[in-house]
Amino acid sequence: MEHHGKIVRQRIEQLGINQTKLAEKLNMSRQNMSHVLTRESIHNDLLKRLGEALETDFFKIIYKEEEPSSSMVEESKIDYERYILKGRLEQLEIMLEKKEVDHIEEALSKIFTKEMKKVDQKIKEILSEVNELNDFIYDKYKWETAQKRNSKDAKP
User: Fold this and answer.
1) Could you say which of 58, 124, 139, 153 has the lowest number of CB atoms within 10 Å?
2) Which CATH superfamily is domain 1-67 in?
Protein backbone atom coordinates (compact mmCIF):
# COMPACT_ATOMS: atom_id res chain seq x y z
CA MET A 1 0.00 0.00 0.00
CA GLU A 2 1.25 3.45 -0.90
CA HIS A 3 1.86 6.29 1.57
CA HIS A 4 -1.53 8.07 1.73
CA GLY A 5 -0.17 11.41 2.95
CA LYS A 6 2.36 11.62 0.11
CA ILE A 7 -0.32 10.86 -2.49
CA VAL A 8 -2.61 13.58 -1.13
CA ARG A 9 0.31 16.03 -0.88
CA GLN A 10 1.24 15.36 -4.53
CA ARG A 11 -2.34 16.06 -5.62
CA ILE A 12 -2.40 19.31 -3.61
CA GLU A 13 0.82 20.39 -5.32
CA GLN A 14 -0.51 19.36 -8.76
CA LEU A 15 -3.58 21.51 -8.26
CA GLY A 16 -1.59 24.38 -6.73
CA ILE A 17 -3.91 24.54 -3.76
CA ASN A 18 -2.92 26.29 -0.55
CA GLN A 19 -2.84 23.85 2.40
CA THR A 20 -4.29 26.44 4.75
CA LYS A 21 -7.30 27.05 2.48
CA LEU A 22 -7.82 23.31 2.10
CA ALA A 23 -7.67 22.89 5.87
CA GLU A 24 -10.27 25.64 6.29
CA LYS A 25 -12.49 23.99 3.69
CA LEU A 26 -12.33 20.76 5.69
CA ASN A 27 -12.83 22.55 9.04
CA MET A 28 -9.43 21.67 10.43
CA SER A 29 -6.36 23.60 11.48
CA ARG A 30 -3.34 24.08 9.22
CA GLN A 31 -1.24 22.12 11.73
CA ASN A 32 -3.67 19.21 11.63
CA MET A 33 -3.61 19.25 7.81
CA SER A 34 0.20 19.15 7.85
CA HIS A 35 0.05 16.20 10.23
CA VAL A 36 -2.44 14.37 7.99
CA LEU A 37 -0.08 14.75 5.04
CA THR A 38 2.68 12.97 6.97
CA ARG A 39 0.53 9.93 7.74
CA GLU A 40 1.24 6.67 6.02
CA SER A 41 -2.42 5.73 6.32
CA ILE A 42 -5.40 8.07 6.33
CA HIS A 43 -8.81 6.95 7.63
CA ASN A 44 -11.38 6.30 4.90
CA ASP A 45 -13.71 9.08 6.09
CA LEU A 46 -10.97 11.71 5.92
CA LEU A 47 -9.66 10.28 2.65
CA LYS A 48 -13.15 10.60 1.18
CA ARG A 49 -13.45 14.23 2.39
CA LEU A 50 -10.02 15.06 0.97
CA GLY A 51 -11.02 13.43 -2.30
CA GLU A 52 -14.19 15.49 -2.52
CA ALA A 53 -12.36 18.71 -1.71
CA LEU A 54 -9.64 17.95 -4.27
CA GLU A 55 -12.01 16.33 -6.78
CA THR A 56 -9.90 13.18 -6.74
CA ASP A 57 -10.77 9.53 -6.12
CA PHE A 58 -7.93 8.62 -3.77
CA PHE A 59 -9.37 5.12 -3.32
CA LYS A 60 -8.69 4.33 -6.98
CA ILE A 61 -5.18 5.77 -6.73
CA ILE A 62 -4.25 4.08 -3.46
CA TYR A 63 -5.86 0.71 -4.07
CA LYS A 64 -5.01 0.46 -7.77
CA GLU A 65 -2.96 -2.71 -7.31
CA GLU A 66 -5.05 -4.38 -4.69
CA GLU A 67 -8.77 -4.87 -4.59
CA PRO A 68 -10.29 -3.46 -1.42
CA SER A 69 -11.73 -6.12 0.84
CA SER A 70 -15.49 -6.34 1.23
CA SER A 71 -15.18 -5.12 4.80
CA MET A 72 -13.16 -2.13 3.57
CA VAL A 73 -15.83 -1.38 0.95
CA GLU A 74 -18.55 -1.70 3.60
CA GLU A 75 -16.58 0.55 5.97
CA SER A 76 -16.16 3.02 3.16
CA LYS A 77 -19.92 3.04 2.49
CA ILE A 78 -20.64 3.56 6.18
CA ASP A 79 -18.04 6.33 6.35
CA TYR A 80 -19.55 7.95 3.28
CA GLU A 81 -23.07 7.79 4.73
CA ARG A 82 -21.72 9.21 8.00
CA TYR A 83 -20.05 11.99 6.02
CA ILE A 84 -23.27 12.79 4.15
CA LEU A 85 -25.29 12.83 7.40
CA LYS A 86 -22.69 15.03 9.05
CA GLY A 87 -22.94 17.45 6.11
CA ARG A 88 -26.73 17.54 6.38
CA LEU A 89 -26.47 18.14 10.12
CA GLU A 90 -24.07 21.02 9.51
CA GLN A 91 -26.49 22.49 6.96
CA LEU A 92 -29.34 22.24 9.47
CA GLU A 93 -27.20 23.88 12.15
CA ILE A 94 -26.37 26.72 9.75
CA MET A 95 -30.06 27.12 8.93
CA LEU A 96 -30.90 27.15 12.65
CA GLU A 97 -28.20 29.74 13.33
CA LYS A 98 -29.52 31.83 10.43
CA LYS A 99 -33.05 31.65 11.81
CA GLU A 100 -31.74 32.66 15.24
CA VAL A 101 -29.81 35.53 13.66
CA ASP A 102 -32.90 36.58 11.71
CA HIS A 103 -34.95 36.41 14.93
CA ILE A 104 -32.35 38.46 16.81
CA GLU A 105 -32.20 41.01 13.98
CA GLU A 106 -36.00 41.26 13.98
CA ALA A 107 -36.09 41.73 17.77
CA LEU A 108 -33.34 44.35 17.63
CA SER A 109 -35.18 46.14 14.84
CA LYS A 110 -38.36 46.26 16.93
CA ILE A 111 -36.46 47.53 19.96
CA PHE A 112 -34.66 50.12 17.82
CA THR A 113 -37.94 51.29 16.27
CA LYS A 114 -39.58 51.54 19.70
CA GLU A 115 -36.62 53.49 21.08
CA MET A 116 -36.56 55.78 18.05
CA LYS A 117 -40.25 56.57 18.62
CA LYS A 118 -39.40 57.51 22.21
CA VAL A 119 -36.51 59.68 21.00
CA ASP A 120 -38.78 61.35 18.41
CA GLN A 121 -41.38 62.06 21.09
CA LYS A 122 -38.72 63.51 23.40
CA ILE A 123 -37.40 65.71 20.59
CA LYS A 124 -40.95 66.99 19.91
CA GLU A 125 -41.37 67.79 23.61
CA ILE A 126 -38.04 69.64 23.72
CA LEU A 127 -38.87 71.58 20.53
CA SER A 128 -42.23 72.54 22.03
CA GLU A 129 -40.50 73.82 25.16
CA VAL A 130 -37.95 75.72 23.04
CA ASN A 131 -40.81 77.33 21.06
CA GLU A 132 -42.57 78.29 24.29
CA LEU A 133 -39.33 79.83 25.59
CA ASN A 134 -38.84 81.70 22.31
CA ASP A 135 -42.41 83.02 22.52
CA PHE A 136 -41.85 84.06 26.15
CA ILE A 137 -38.57 85.79 25.31
CA TYR A 138 -40.17 87.55 22.34
CA ASP A 139 -43.14 88.66 24.45
CA LYS A 140 -40.80 89.90 27.19
CA TYR A 141 -38.73 91.77 24.59
CA LYS A 142 -41.86 93.42 23.20
CA TRP A 143 -43.05 94.32 26.71
CA GLU A 144 -39.63 95.76 27.69
CA THR A 145 -39.45 97.71 24.44
CA ALA A 146 -42.95 99.09 25.04
CA GLN A 147 -42.00 100.02 28.61
CA LYS A 148 -38.90 101.88 27.42
CA ARG A 149 -40.96 103.75 24.83
CA ASN A 150 -43.61 104.62 27.41
CA SER A 151 -41.00 105.86 29.87
CA LYS A 152 -39.41 108.06 27.17
CA ASP A 153 -42.80 109.41 26.19
CA ALA A 154 -43.68 110.13 29.83
CA LYS A 155 -40.57 112.25 30.44
CA PRO A 156 -41.01 115.99 29.78
Assistant:
1) 153
2) lambda repressor-like DNA-binding domains (1.10.260.40)
Q: The pTM is what? A: 0.42
Give the mean pLDDT of 72-85. 65
Residue 40 has what DSSP assignment?
S
- Measure the CA–CA gap between 9 and 2, rounded to whole angstroms: 13
CA angle, 2 then 59 then 37, to 5°: 55
SS (H, E, C) 51-118: HHHHCCCHHHHHCCCCCCCHHHHHHHHHHHHHHHHHHHHHHHHHHHHHHHHHHHHHHHHHHHHHHHHH
